[in-house]
């Protein structure tokens, strides 16, 4: 979760997010090199005294400044396309969770198990404890096993919503009458926070998402407990 004075990106919680961070660093280094090169050339133009009034064309330099940007764009496009297809890939899921967006709360259904469905509301300010976060914590957290392939099915009951958890590189629209799908894998335990990322009405800011990543043993115990409620 982002805190005050956090200037860098958040630590990833999934292999796909790691790859996105690597791509971010890769692209940023290319931009840095271009910026330094162009800045150096512009700086030298201010201070040099060279001039040649008979210069009309320079086909060699024109060829270089056409081909070089094309090569740079290829170095950016190839890993970008690879990531694009990896993000859409859906492997064999261990657990399938259906998330339904409402105004203004989320409801979850674990259709692989019997009678496991619940609503997740933001904890009001009056009910906050010392260990809970204002505007981010919920009364019923979603739980998934780590190191397992998870499939999310996302839809909405009323208006457009967007189910988003940044550290997982997951942002998927919840559209009424449409079932969208996303797949991810958590590589560590923890509690991860997200929010609706689609302006969905007056209380859009008050429908947070909290996911708890736990071991498979604890997950099965949690499922057993939830099925008894």
TrEMBL record:
The segment(s) forming the Cytochrome oxidase subunit II transmembrane region profile domain are: 1-91
- Which segments cross the bilayer? 20-43, 64-87
Q: Which Gene3D superfamilies match?
A: 1.10.287.90, Cupredoxins - blue copper proteins
Keyword field: Copper, Electron transport, Magnesium, Membrane, Metal-binding, Mitochondrion, Mitochondrion inner membrane, Respiratory chain, Translocase, Transmembrane, Transmembrane helix, Transport
Taxonomically, which superkingdom?
A: Eukaryota
Q: What is its main location?
A: mitochondrion
What is the recorded name of this protein? Cytochrome c oxidase subunit 2
Source organism of the structure: Ocypus olens
**Gene that encodes the chain:** cox2
């Amino acid at each position: 979760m982002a805190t005050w004075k956090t200037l860098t990106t958040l630590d990833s919680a999934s292999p796909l997010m790691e790859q996105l961070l690597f791509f971010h660093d890769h692209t940023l280094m290319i931009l840095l090199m271009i910026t330094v090169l162009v800045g150096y050339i512009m700086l030298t133009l201010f201070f040099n005294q060279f001039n040649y009034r008979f210069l009309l064309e320079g086909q060699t330099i024109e060829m270089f400044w056409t081909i070089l940007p094309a090569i740079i764009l290829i170095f950016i496009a190839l890993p970008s396309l690879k990531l694009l297809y990896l993000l859409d890939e859906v492997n064999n899921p261990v657990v399938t969770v259906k998330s339904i967006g409402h105004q203004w709360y989320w409801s979850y259904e674990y259709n692989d198990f019997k009678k496991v469905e619940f609503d997740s509301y933001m904890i009001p300010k009056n009910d906050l404890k010392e260990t809970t976060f204002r505007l981010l914590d919920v009364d019923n957290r979603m739980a998934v096993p780590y190191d397992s392939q998870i499939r999310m099915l996302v839809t909405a009951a009323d208006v457009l919503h967007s189910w988003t958890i940044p550290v997982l590189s997951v942002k998927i629209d919840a559209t009424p009458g449409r079932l969208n799908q996303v797949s991810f894998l958590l590589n560590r335990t923890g509690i991860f926070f997200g929010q609706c990322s689609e302006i969905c009405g007056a209380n859009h800011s008050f429908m947070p998402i909290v996911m708890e990543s736990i071991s498979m043993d604890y997950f099965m115990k949690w499922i057993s407990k939830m099925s008894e409620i």
